[in-house]
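Format is chain and fold; as here:
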Amino acid sequence: MAVPVRRPVASLWIGEKLQYLNQLCLLSHVKHGHPTTLYCTDTVTNVPDGVEVRPATEIMTIDMDIVSQTSESFLSNVFRYKMIQKTNAVWIDCDAFCHQPFPDEMQNIFAGHGFRGALNCGVVYIPPKGELIERLMDYYDNLPDAPAWFNKQQHKRLAKQDPSLPHAVRIYKAERTSFGPQAFTYFAQQTGDFDKALSSDYLYPVPFQLNDIFFDPYGRVEGHFTDNTLSVHLYTNGTKPWWRKNPPLPGSYAFRMCEEIGLDPNQALED
């Protein structure tokens, strides 16, 4: 039986090699019928079959000097909304596993995250024309002296930054999530879109603080899932080095999902 063609999804990769968890997550969307695009800044040597590769410059100019002073996630925070505007695709982080396909009619795909209740933007779709995306893009394109939500301590950290650094880098170093969850949460509150958020079980059923459970052969990951669960964030940024350099243990969620997708993790372990 043919897999139905569903709405497109896309992500960004900075670097030359995917880890096996990234391959796994991209392929999980392909499996569910989502046309899956990976925008790349470099020639990536191990993108799995079924994933379309496009140059990141189709979406925006990439300033690698800024990336080198911040992080890959810094750039992706700007990239995702420009990508939604240009392609109307759902943004997926490369460590978001597709548990169920995204409904075609769902116009607001974002959710609360972890134990804190702030919104995350690891998996996100918002209408490409609307106040929320316009406010986000205006923030990125016309950075204020300091983000409006900064508290006293954040202002102090910002003031201590090297004035010779680019302004975006100073803000990032003062508060790492200023361009990601903090910005998304703040502007969603300002526009009234905060109340449209899905509950965490849709996109982040396992809190970040418990991410080791994906590699525990006795962990009952599915106990966190509900009938609503569409995506399962694997949090590769928080994964311990041992799990990135060794194949998952038999019986663990990561092992079982590799078997389900037909992926050999040994071919893309971290050096």
